[in-house]
Amino acid sequence: MSSVPPKRATGQALPLAALFDAAPAALVALAPDGAVLAWSSGAERLFGWSAAEVVGRPCPWPQGLAPLLERAVRGETVESALLQLAPRDGPPLLISASLSPLRSGQEGVSAVFVRAAGAAPDEGDFRAMVESLEDFVGITLHEKQRIYVSPSFLRATGYAPAEVLNNDFRALIHPDDLAAVERFFHATLAGASTRLEYRFLCKDGCYLSLEAQARPLAGPDGRIDRVLWSSRDVTERKRAEEERAALERKVQEAQRLEGLGVLAGGIAHDFNNLLTTVIGFASLAAKDLPSDSPVQPYLAQIEAAGQRAAELCQQMLAYAGKGRFHVEPADLSAVVRDTWALLHLSVSRNAVLSFRLTPDLPPILADVNQLRQIVLSLVANAAEALGAGEGLIVVATECVYVNATTVASLRHGDGTEGEHVVLEVSDTGCGMDEATLERIFEPFFTTKFPGRGLGLAALLGIVRSHKGAIQVTSAPGAGSTFRLLFPVAAPQRE
């Protein structure tokens, strides 16, 4: 027996108007001229106008819908076009709109509106976003007047709004960067895509390094006369780059000097052995010959030249840090006082030699003879820098604490954190430029006549062998200052 499925019940057909109003999306029917033919309940909920207020009247957004309406009237179907449409009350909404020709035989267009991505940001939203940025944002008018700066800028620079807004801010730009900032402003107004690094003076007197980019803006009158800029604080990055570059220079110089020291030490050691033989046999020959022998003057010249060569070898060994030292606790001020008479003889009558010696300095472990040689050498160099003219040479001693920052900045010699005794020799002579400063500790380098020996290179070797360091400051026409730092000797345990 076959079963016959029951007949499906048929109810009353639901009116199309009810379906139209029940749809969650905003359904709208439009005439070709943009007049509203139908307006669903969903449209009332989304846009705020009731059907009675808009049906038979022009669409609330004639300009926004016009291009899409024209396409739909021509028979095209427009799917998911994004529009910004304003409701009756409130900010504009981002809407996904779909339009197609009416299929009911009535001339017109059906439109479906769906809220796409929430409310479009208004001015308050944009301000909140800008004020939450860590980067600095601002607007500059007429090249020098800032009419807006973000709170992040004020926090970083320490200024109150009244101190930077509507005032000429050019005085706060580092003088060396001001011309570049002005060119940056004009290039931006001309439409160029530019980036710039410049330094800005903070309220505490320090400079921030800023990396900026900008775009032009039109004012209320439509004329482009202002710049919207964003800046990023790159102070720490710049400082790290400078420290890394300084460390690389220091390492490179240390490697270069170490290589020269190994070469100088090896040559000096072997050459000194040969000189010992030459001087020894010359001395023996002089003893075996009669005192009135015509060969005696030649042998004396051989011995004298050999002794000078031996002294040069000692300088080379000192530069290499392999000199022979008798190390003992020494008072640097006392060592300078012991060389007082010799120092006055090493300067011209036109030079004034002044001393500022700190009494009761803590002792350093040093070879006293080498310390005397250092003092004499520095004063002699200062006297040569003065030439025949008048000038001042100051020899000073003091005790200072060397911190980690100073240690990192030392380029010549070894540095350790802690107490150091300082020997400072300054003059008011001709000074040196940067190129000369870079080379003064190279063996045999001199700005005077050639053939003067190792000079400051030997001095650096002696200082390094005492675990010390040298700081040099100089400028053409402004004299030179040499500061030698020697670590204080550790107290002896009883």
Q: Structural class given helices, strands, pairing?
A: alpha+beta
Shape: rod-shaped
What count of helical segments does DSSP give?
16
Helix content: 25-40%
Strand content: 25-35%
E-strand count: 18
Overall average residue pLDDT: 80
State the end-to-end CA separation: 124 Å
Q: Provide the low-confidence segments as ranges.
A: 1-14, 449-454
How do the strands of the widest beta sheet line up side by side?
A: 12-14-16-18-17-15
If you compute it from the alpha carbons, what radius of gyration comes out, rounded to the nearest whole angstrom?
44 Å
The biggest beta sheet is recorded as: 6 strands, mixed
Question: Could you describe the 3D structure shown?
Answer:
It is a single chain. This protein is an alpha+beta fold. 39% of the residues lie in helices and 26% in strands. It contains 16 helices and 18 strands. It has helices at 16-22, 41-47, 51-54, 62-73, 123-131, 151-157, 161-164, 178-189, 235-288, 296-319, 332-338, 340-345, 368-386, 404-409, 434-437, 456-465; strands at 26-30, 36-39, 78-85, 93-101, 109-119, 136-141, 145-149, 195-201, 207-218, 224-233, 328-330, 351-356, 364-366, 391-402, 412-413, 418-427, 469-474, 480-487. A six-stranded mixed β-sheet has the order 12-14-16-18-17-15. Strands 2-1-5-4-3 form a five-stranded antiparallel β-sheet. Helix 9 (235-288) packs antiparallel against helix 10 and helix 11 packs across helix 13 (368-386). The longest helix has 54 residues, at 235-288. The protein is rod-shaped. It starts with 15 loop residues before the first helix and ends in a 7-residue tail after the last strand. The relative contact order is 0.06.
